[in-house]
Every structure is written in structure tokens, then in C-alpha cells.
Amino acid sequence: MSTTKKTAVVTGAAGFLGSHLTDRLLAEGFRVVGMDNLITGNVRNIEHLAGNPDFDFIKHDVTKFIYLPGKVDLIFHFASPASPIDYLQIPIQTLKVSSLGTHNALGLAKEKGATFLIASTSECYGDPLEHPQKETYWGNVNPIGPRGCYDEAKRFAEAMTMAYHRAHGVDTKIVRIFNTYGPRMRLEDGRVVPAFIGQALEGRPLSVFGDGSQTRSFCYVSDLIDGIFKLSQSNYHEPVNIGNPAEMTILQFAEAILRITGVQQPIEHKPLPQDDPKVRQPDITLAKKLLGWEPKVSFEEGITKTVAYFRDFLRIKP
Ligand code: UDP
């Protein structure tokens, strides 16, 4: 590995966002140490980096002490399950990775004098009573509901990050990530984008939860990573929303997937999960002003690329 390059550590490097972030950092001239315990991440997402002299992978559970020799300039803490069905299945790991894992990653940042960026989430706003959501909104979270393990752990992670900034002077950043999609999502992770695309491509009905009137705003992964990279280079320490404000209902989303895949399938309504947020849309005024960032990839273009990825994954010919 070259020693003149800056070194970044990415926890969750074999995950959806962690792997795209790793690619971006390598393209920006960093050497990258990727960590993952592979509970929800998959080495398939980083296999194209095998043999890259600027990339090292360490299989490690970041809820355990992190020891790394040598200098580290930048730490991105992206390890965490991120899908509602994952947190139902592994709630304790979900709590631990954003609490103990964040503490360990911050400890490493303090020890190395590194900048630290935490992947936080729009889930900090819970089922929001303010719409669209600005960073100043404190949220409406049910701490003991099924999503509480994720939401509260991320809120704790934000609190811990601000405490390390204030008490130890660590250079920290917090990104609140809104719904993001693109290649390398897990087909079976239960989130709405892979769920609907998988169902459409495999000729199954689309599973709309509830009446489908709940809204989400979907950001293509390259736009999100661009915003996160810019934030990592900024001098701002409080949370910043990164997401695409183009909001739609889940029913509209299902219809768009059928149109873009050219598939005709019925919509099958299933029960709405407990505490499912009724609306979600980022206010990105701050990111625009601070970072000169806004999303560039249209919904049509992003979904078309994602469908192509899943077709290839499922080996379904167009
Ligand atoms: N959803 C759905 N069908 C599915 C999966 C999800 O209708 O098969 C809905 C879900 O109820 C929520 C929205 O799609 O309102 C987004 O869900 P997702 O799990 O992708 O992420 P969330 O934004 O809830 O964290």
C-alpha cells in the first residue's frame, strides 16, 4: 500500500452504501481499509476490489475493540443493518453496532486524530409531525416499537458523536440518510425498492403495505455518495440531510416499477407494519447551501439502472 495517500476506514464496507463509498474514496485517491462482519454485508459487493493495492478488507465486528496499526485520516461508520425486516430479526446487533460500534469507531478517530463521519438516518425523525423534515426537527420516535432498536441506536450514535466532538474535539460529521436505492441492494432485504423490482421481474404480485398512501422520497446511490463525500470534506459538525426530495406514494412507486419494467402484475395489499412512517421527504436546503450539493439522477434513470442490476443478478433477459 502507498503511504503518501490518505487512509480512510469504512465500517460496513461490504454493504450497499459502504461498498459504493469505498469505490468513491478509492477514485478520490484514498487508500481504504474496509471492515465488515458480513451479517448483512456481502463480499460480492467488494469482490471487484480484490488485488487493488489501495484496498484492504478486515472481517471484524466493530462492536468489539478496533485495533488498527498506522495512520488513519478519515473514518466512515457505515456498519448497521438498515432494513426494517433486518432489525426485527437482529434487534440486539442493530442496537449494538450503532451504540458500542459508534463508541469504538469514535475511540479510533480520537486515537488517530482522524475525522469521523457517522451514517445517521431519516429514522431519527420517526413518524414525522413536521413535513418535509428539516435538520432542526427533533422527531417523533417510538422507542419501544419494532423500529426503536434502529431509530434509538442511531439517535444515540448522533449524541455520542456530538459528545466526542464537544468533549474531545474530534472533527465529526453527521449525515442523515433518506431512502436510497441502487445496485448492490440485497434482493431479499425486504425494502420496497428491491422487493417491488424482484416481484415485477419474477412475475409475482407487488406487495403494497397498507393502502399505499404513505410517502417516501428515493435518492439514487451515486447522488447520495456524492453528498456524503462533500460533507466529509466540509467543516460542519451538526446533522445534514442527504436525500432526494422527489416524494411519491408507495402506490405511485409500485405503478412506476410496473411501467419501467414493462410488466403487468396485480398489486396485493398486505398489512402496514407497526410505526411505518406516513410521510418522509428531506428538506435539503442546508446541503445545497453548505455543500453546493443536490441530486442529479432522475428517478427514471436511477430505477432503470437498478432494474438492469437486478435483471443481471437474477439472470433475467430484458
Ligand atoms: N413497503 C411496501 N411493500 C414492501 C416493502 C415496503 O409497501 O414490500 C412500504 C413500507 O411499508 C414503507 C415503504 O414501503 O411505507 C418503504 O419501506 P422500506 O422498508 O423500503 O423502508 P422505510 O422507508 O420504511 O425504512
At the first level of CATH, what is the class of the largest domain? Answer: Alpha Beta
Q: Could you spell the SSE succession in H and E letters?
A: EHEEEHHEHEEHEEEHEEHEHH
Strand content: 15-25%
The biggest sheet amounts to: 7 strands, parallel
Structural class: alpha/beta
CATH architectural arrangement of the largest domain: 3-Layer(aba) Sandwich
Provide mean pLDDT, rounded. 97
- CATH topology term of the largest domain: Rossmann fold
DSSP helix fraction: 25-40%
- Ligand types: uridine-5'-diphosphate
Radius of gyration: 19 Å
Low-confidence regions = none
Count of runs of 4 or more consecutive helical residues: 9
Sequence of strands across the biggest β-sheet: 3-2-1-4-5-6-11
How many distinct folded domains? Answer: 2
Coarse morphology: globular
The beta-strand count equals 13
Determine the CATH superfamily of the largest domain.
Answer: NAD(P)-binding Rossmann-like Domain
